[in-house]
Design goal:
Blueprint: E1 2-6, H1 15-22, E2 27-30, H2 45-58, E3 63-66, H3 78-98, E4 102-105, E5 108-109, H4 116-131, E6 139-143, E7 151-152, H5 156-165, E8 173-177, H6 178-183, H7 191-204, H8 207-210, E9 211-216, E10 218-219, E11 230-231, H9 240-247, E12 256-259, H10 268-280
Parallel strand pairs: 1-2, 1-12, 2-3, 3-4, 4-6, 6-8, 8-9, 9-12
Antiparallel strand pairs: 5-7, 10-11
The protein binds zinc ion (ZN) (2 copies).
One zinc ion binds next to helix 6.
């Protein structure tokens, strides 16, 4: 597993790679645009060239992108649903130009106007429109959520149901967030719990077939609280054992992972990354 962090693109996309290299990242996750806005400046050939040059300079050549938080492919509102689809298509196009492995997204929220299952099917419908005729190498990756508010994707079954509804399954991937799973009620704190949770994920979703990326975060909230609050590694309710097991698990060798822990506390990403690298080196 390659280990890194979510890094800022402030000042230019390529800066995310430099920021990653500064703290020893082997890969990074980025937003390809301001994640709070629908519209963005188009990606210019110069931006792509600069980015590729920074890849060579920093040695960070594997990375993934997180989509905008505004996108809701499960929206019950037709207009917002269509707007989300076209914004997602734009994100995919940017991701392919830059060469991202996957485009991670939270599946969606039903805003209490649909059942969980109906919302999953709505997300699958959106993905079918998006993937019809799509030839890009970057795969949309469904991230498991904490289940806050009306967000779906907190049960592994939601993810399985979405994939089940997608025609082009080979174009799909998934991303696993340790804090979200824990907040959703999947225990990961000791070896027994860790094994049971990932066996379940494998059985319900499929590790080899779909899992490509990780978000490595501890959780500020206790098990099954259904609240999304990331914490620095070893300072939350999951504890370090989970992360030691995770980075040494052969089933995840092909994956890329990014920290999304708080940057202002406990030494931020740099300290958290050090812990992961030590665990992987067997120290
Ligand atoms: Zn995440
Ligand atoms: Zn989160």
């Amino acid at each position: 597993m390659l280990l890194g962090a979510h890094t800022s693109i402030s000042g230019g996309l390529y800066k995310s790679l430099e920021r990653g290299a500064e703290i020893g990242c082997e890969c990074v996750q980025i937003f390809s645009k301001n994640q709070q806005q629908w519209k963005s400046k188009p990606l210019l050939p110069e931006d792509v060239t600069e980015f590729k040059e920074a890849e060579k300079r920093t040695g960070i050549s594997r990375f993934f992108i997180h989509d905008s938080y505004l996108i809701n492919l499960g929206s019950p509102d037709d207009e917002k649903w269509r707007r989300s689809i076209s914004a997602f298509e734009d994100e995919l196009e940017r991701a392919n130009k830059l060469g991202a492995e996957v485009l991670v997204f939270h599946p969606g929220a039903h805003l209490k106007q649909m059942t969980d299952d109906e919302c999953c099917d709505r997300v699958a419908d959106a993905l079918n429109l998006i993937l019809d005729g799509y030839e890009g190498a970057c795969k949309p990756a469904i991230e498991n959520t904490a289940g806050q508010g009306s967000n779906i994707g907190w049960r592994f079954e939601h993810i399985a149901r979405i994939i089940e509804g997608v025609k082009h399954k080979a174009k799909m991937a998934t991303c696993y967030d340790t804090a979200h799973a824990f907040a959703a009620g999947y225990d990961e704190r000791d070896e027994k719990a860790f094994t049971a949770t990932f066996d379940e994920y494998d059985m319900v979703v499929g590790i080899k077939k779909y899992l490509r990326a990780f978000h490595i975060n501890d959780s500020k909230v206790e098990l099954a609280k259904r609240v999304d609050r990331h914490e620095n590694l070893g300072h939350g309710h999951i504890g370090l054992k989970c992360f030691e097991l995770l980075v040494n698990d052969k089933r995840f060798d092909h994956c890329i992972a990014a920290l999304e822990t708080p940057m202002e506390t406990h030494g931020g990403h740099a300290e958290d990354l050090k812990k992961l690298l030590k665990f992987r080196a067997g120290k």
